[in-house]
Automatic annotation (TrEMBL):
It holds the Pfam family TonB_C. Its main location: membrane. NCBIfam families: tonB_Cterm (TIGR01352). One of its GO terms (biological process) is transmembrane transport. Residues 140-234 form the TonB C-terminal domain. GO terms for molecular function: energy transducer activity. It is found in: Cell inner membrane. It comes from Phenylobacterium haematophilum. One of its GO terms (cellular component) is plasma membrane protein complex. Residues 1-21, 64-148 are annotated as: Disordered. Keywords: Cell inner membrane, Cell membrane, Membrane, Protein transport, Transmembrane, Transmembrane helix, Transport. The keyword Acetylation does not apply. Residues 68-98, 123-134 have a biased composition (Pro residues). This is Protein TonB.
């Protein structure tokens, strides 16, 4: 049995344009242009859109400041030229002076006699008297204070009956003997209980050191005496 082989033939119409053959050089130029454009586009993309990184270092550079050198000192001035000393001044001769041989004699002036005077020295002046010294004054002070028995003896009867305590203040003049006189009640508390009168009667028992002037007792010292009246305990 014989093998059958199918052969397909391209059918072309008489009206079709004749088939043109592509030139290999044109194909190579097109491919090269495409490659060049692709490389150029990649390069532009890398430079425009890809971020660029720079590396920085923390190195510190020490800068030494060098001071300019001081200017050299000026040269010393040149020594002065050797000049000869000036000539000494010329002395002009003076004409001779004619001195007369016979000069008149002038008599000496009379000297007045010296009067001898004996001055009597004045007696020394007396020194002024010394100013008086200021007086030393001492104020009155206690010589004998009232005792508790004195206060109990002169306690006001009314205050004693009412079981009341109080106080009184009197002012007195101290005599040169140390006794009190001209006493007056300055204050009493509570009032109308007789504490002031009791203090006046009790003042006859007081003894004071009088006021002194330069160590001597004098009249006129004044004192102010507060007295407290307390009920006996027990």
């Amino acid at each position: 049995m014989a093998e059958t082989t199918d052969t397909t033939h391209e059918h072309r119409s008489v009206f079709d344009a004749p088939k043109r053959k592509r030139n290999p050089a044109v194909t190579a130029a097109i491919v090269g242009s495409i490659i060049v454009h692709a490389v150029l586009g990649y390069y532009l993309y890398k430079n425009k859109f890809e971020p660029k990184y720079r590396e920085y270092t923390d190195d510190v550079t020490d800068v030494a400041i060098i001071k300019p050198a001081p200017p050299p000192p000026p040269p010393p001035p040149p020594p002065p030229p050797n000049t000869p000393p000036p000539p000494p001044p010329k002395l002009q001769p003076r004409p001779p002076v004619n001195v007369p041989a016979d000069l008149p004699t002038i008599p000496p002036l009379p000297v007045p006699p010296v009067e001898k005077r004996i001055e009597t020295p004045e007696p020394p002046k007396a020194a002024p008297p010394a100013p008086p010294r200021p007086s030393v004054i001492t104020n009155p002070d206690w010589a004998r204070r009232p005792s508790g028995e004195d206060i109990a003896r002169y306690y006001p009867d009314r205050a004693m009956r009412m079981n009341t305590e109080g106080r009184a203040t009197i002012s007195c003049t101290v005599t040169a003997k140390g006794t009190l006189e001209s006493c007056e009640v300055q204050a009493e508390e509570p009032a109308d209980m007789g504490f002031g009168e009791a203090a006046l009667r009790m003042s006859k028992l007081f003894r004071m050191r009088p006021k002194t002037q330069d160590g001597a007792p004098v009249e006129g010292g004044s004192v102010r005496i507060p007295i407290r009246f307390n009920l006996p305990k027990g």
